[in-house]
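Supplementary Methods, section 5.1.

A reviewer requested that the exact input to the structure prediction be made available. We therefore reproduce it here, unchanged from the version used in the analyses.
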Amino acid sequence: MQTFLNTCCNKLPMDTEKLKRIITDQEEDMAEKFKRENIIPREKITCSPKVDIATVITGPRRAGKSIFSFHSIKNQPYAYINFDDERLNLKTSDLNDVLEAFYSLKGAPEVFLFDEIQNVAGWEKFISRIIKTKKVIITGSNANLLSSELSTHLAGRHKDIVLMPFSFREFLQFKNFNYNIYSTKSISKIKSLLFEYMQKGGFPLALKLNPSHLIELFSDILEKDILLRYKPRHASAVREMSKLLIANPGSEITYNKLKNILKIESVHTVQKYMGYFESAYLVFKLNRFSYKLKEQVSSPKKVYSIDTGLLNAVAFSTSPNHGKLMENLIAIELFRRKSACPADKSFAELCSAQTIEPDLDFYYWRDYGNHEVDFVLKKGNKYELLQSCWDASNPLTMERKVSSLIKAAEELKTSKLTIVTWDEEKEITEAGFEITIIPLYKWLLR
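The structure derived from this sequence is encoded token-by-token as follows.
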């Protein structure tokens, strides 16, 4: 019995010491990384943690959530742990040991930063308890991080931030380029960098390393954030479906068609898999516009990659489709503007209307005559129509884009019509409608 007690008594301090060593290693690694990083301030996104308000930061894997969090609390005493560490295999009951290790190492930190906390099952009640006395930031690579259970415990006591890969404006800062949209020389450089941005995307690490990093990132999202987390029955079908969706940006798809292609037994299973991809921030989907919600839900969807670099690496590695890349890039920017504003602040307080759109929803539009508009932007009861057109010099393409805009404008009773092109800029009038034609770089930077 004495031997057993001695063994137990010796084991617990060893476990605690191991935990403290891991926490120390992680903080040293993050501090070193923070010193090396070229910190890019994120557009119109702030993170100021407060007691009794959990700051919940989600977004794609390796989009910069940890660096953003560190930058936000760099002048405050903090404690940090990353649960995405193979040395940690913690249960809910171990989370209090993490707090004890924090206090032992740090004294009385003001802010707790929990990275990828969703790796510990049942973490929600733990967070609900400690935010009563501490500032807490939690991050995760899953859109469902704020689960229904956490929402119940933290009703009205959380600030939600979606951190995306770099926007084009942030990419220009990363490149240390101070642009002037009225300078011919500057515009030439802007367009050169925009082409690079469209090819490489906005994941910070991918911009510093070999483009093959994006293939590794795609694999990590698929394997760790989807297959390992959800353990779907048809793993091979999930892999095939992910590549199929990314390789066809802006193409209409139906769940039934995917079911047949992938030879999956039910539409419900395909819908579930689509939810996995969206939760992991691999893709997002658009509904076809309709005034009737039932028609929106039942109509074909369009799916876009969360990053054009990821799309290029996975699908267009040998022959880039510039038109599809540009359309996907516009969709990403609209998704960013829809997602960017923290939920607990008004847009007037935190957001510029030029960058972040209040109450923005966006769809695509198609009628029975096969007229199609790439994006319908809905803000309250107002609509804006937007077409993507890589080659505005092609008269047939422009005729199709313009006629579709007019058809949709007549149906939706809107006069705000835009065609985003690679480099053409002018105003035209067709059938009594004024249409703004604007270069992609100017649309992204306005």
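Residues 2-36 form the longest helix (35 residues). These observations are discussed further in the main text.
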